Amino acid sequence: MAEADPFLKRFGRNRPAAIGAVLLLAVTAGGLLAPMLSAPDPWAMVARPFLWPGSDPRFPLGTDMLGRDLLAGILHGARVSLLVGLIATAAAAFVGISIGALAGYYGGRIDNLLMRLTELFQIVPPFILAVVLVVILEPSVGTIILAIAAISWPQLARLTRAEVLSIREREYVEAAVSVGMSDRRIIFREILPNAAPPLLVSTSLAVATSILLESSLSFLGLGDPNVMSWGTMVGAGREVLRSAWYVCAVPGVAILVTVLAINLVGEGLNDALDPKRRRR
Amino acid sequence: MTGGDPILDIRGLATEFHTSRGPVRAVDGIDLSVGPGETVALVGESGCGKTTTAFSVLRLIPRHRGRVVAGEIRFDRLDLATLDERSLRRIRGNRIAMIFQDPASALNPLMTVGAQIAEAVRLHRGLGRAAARAETEALLRAVRIPEPRRRLDEFPHQLSGGMRQRVMIALALSCRPRLLIADEPTTALDVTVQAQILALIEELKQEFGMSVLLITHDLAVVAEVADRVAVMYAGRKVEEAPVSRLFAAPRHPYTRALLASIPDPDADTGGGAAAQPLPEIPGRVQPAGSRIEGCAFAERCAIAADICRQAAPPEALSGDGAAVFCHHAAPEDAGQIAAAVEGRL
Q1: Among A20, B34, B107, B172, which has the minimal tally of Cβ within 10 Å of its Cβ?
Q2: InterPro entries this protein is in (chain A) (predicted)?
């Protein structure tokens, strides 16, 4: 705990990172409290269609072409976006970090095998791969998470491998070998904690990418048909873009704000964890 | 000299590194033994293979970098050169422990020193959390760290260099090893701290009944703590002798040249003008990997003859375990002859 204090201080002193953290907390709170803050069902037609934002105080963000409350859509959509972003990234991080750590630590044939496998995923344009996976597996929240994780892990695997390759050569790892520690202990106790800063930053940025991917898939009509998502809203609104542009813009801004907030937090983590700044 | 069978007995050890230009032999047929309770120093200049020898004993050279290609490393009736990884892991830290050159980088920066030592204690002795903590505190006290209980919860960067090396030693001692390999343990420390650490190692050697294999390039350190010295040059052992003998009557031209290059604090008290420049050894060590037919030192040796470039010098043994590899080794008892040759160096 002794380390946490100066870390939080450095993080807090970084104005953009603090703003990002506040925005992210707001989005999370909105998602968690969605049923309380707005209609319990975002699909319900609750008012006259094409109600512009601000014209009716009961629907501050207006309604879409079917008379659905946009605020309810945004709040419920936050749940999906954050859920997909977090779970897909967690899965990608688990697979990527495991594979990267094994490849980097053992080297040789294992490294070769695992890295060729990683490249197999990287030679296909990632978004196309995600589209194909979702189409084959039928769109649902589960398959979308799977598809996003499947295209996100290779990058984390490569980064982890590079970090492990360099940390493995440090003297304290040699010292750990010389006191008879097992490989597993060395990887988990000595190497990965010391590789954590760049991995943490990358992983946090991967959450933002996952949210964008989910929105893109939903925009293309490959979202879960039973779940309201920001991408679905933008996709539905594009047909009325010229007459009622706010139907696209409102969920678009939600995506923008969330992704920006996560990026700011990620950058803040990067600065706060940078050992060169830490030394001061 | 201490009697009894050697604890560690290295025979014909050769270690190669993989490079882009093929294998490079860093250690080329070394014999070395360490007896019970003995301190053996392995000396030589940078790159002569002394650290590689030490790392080979515990097979610490990563597989992708290099490997032991020949020879035996006898320890406790086992051959460490061919032992399987699992059995080797039981020996590492348990029977043989190692301390490293730079204590700043040999400790995990993210763990408290107490946690690092306790981890080794629990690993090898199967103690519980509380017992391991108590044992760790005792170890820190054993290496004369003041306020050991408070130090337990400090991180390596909060300690001074000398303190870190004491922590490394405590870590090495955690399982009461029979052999301690010290790889230039004082190089990264300043002179007063060096003396303290050397004294500590010497005391602990008695206390814990260990043998010590000391890797160093510092002849002053050797004179202070070693019982026996092996001098290495370009991956080979050139001379081995009890420490007093080596300093009094070095037989190999390289050893003589090394000893001659130690500054003598009494020699130039008379004022700057009279001060003699220190003699140096002309030339450079052959780049690692170059095939050497004869004596590795021939190119830089003042008394080298044709035979030195053609044939590897034979081992000339004498009593009490001394050996020299040189076609023109100075006679054993010849302080005067050695001095005469020194004139020519």
Answers
A1: A20
A2: BP-dependent_transpt_permease, MetI-like, MetI-like_sf
Q: Are B239 and B204 in contact (CB under 8 A)?
A: no
List the domains of chain A with CATH numbers. Answer: 15-23+58-278 (1.10.3720.10)
Please give the helix or strand (H or E) that residue B195 lies within, else none.
Answer: helix B191-208
Report whether A104 contacts A164 (CB < 8 A).
Answer: yes
A194 interfaces chain B, CB cutoff of 8 Å: yes
Alpha carbon of A17: minimum distance to chain B alpha carbons (Å): 25
Mutate to test the interface with A, among B56, B116, B139 (most CBs of A within 10 A): B116
Chain B residues with CB-CB distance to A194 below 8 A = 108-110
Buried b (16+ CB within 10 A) or exposed e, B128-141: eeeebbebbbebbe
B124 interaction partners in chain A (CB closer than 8 Å) = 179-180
Query: To 10 degrees, what angle do helices B335-344 and B253-260 make?
Result: 80
Alpha carbon distance B302, B292 (integer Å): 18
* Measured distance CA(B118)–CA(B109) in Å, rounded: 15
Distance from the Cα of B169 to chain A's closest Cα (Å) equals 11
Name A237's Cβ contacts closer than 8 Å, sequence gap at least 6: A64, A65, A244, A247, A248, A251
Task: Write phi, then psi, for A192 (nearest 5 degrees).
Answer: -60, -45
Classify domain B1-95+176-233 by CATH architecture. Answer: 3-Layer(aba) Sandwich (3.40)
Give how far B305 is from chain A: nearest CA, Å.
43
Position B319, amino acid: G
Handedness of CA B99, B102, B108, B112 (dihedral sign): positive
A13 secondary structure, DSSP code: H
**Looking at the predicted complex, does its ipTM rise above 0.85?**
no
Question: What token pair was written down for B113?
Answer: 């020193």
| B282 class by beta-carbon count within 10 Å (0-12 exposed, 13-18 middle, 19+ buried) | exposed
Query: What distances in angstroms separate CA B192 from CA A279, B142, B146, B196, B199, one per listed residue?
Result: 28, 20, 17, 7, 11
Closest partner residue to A175 (CB to CB) among B100, B110, B123 is B100
Dihedral sign, CA of B130, B136, B139, B145?
A: negative
Is A3 exposed, middle or buried, given 0-12, 13-18 or 19+ CB atoms closer than 10 A?
exposed
pLDDT tens for chain B, residues 1 to 345:
445 688 999 999 999 998 888 888 889 889 999 999 999 999 988 888 888 999 999 998 888 788 899 999 999 889 999 999 888 988 888 899 999 888 888 899 889 999 999 988 888 888 888 999 999 999 999 898 999 999 999 999 889 888 999 999 999 888 889 999 999 888 888 888 888 888 999 999 998 889 999 999 888 889 888 999 999 998 889 999 999 888 888 888 898 888 888 776 665 555 554 556 777 787 777 666 666 778 888 888 888 888 888 888 888 887 677 888 888 887 765 554 445 455 554
The CA dihedral of A48, A49, A51, A53, to the nearest 10 degrees, is 130
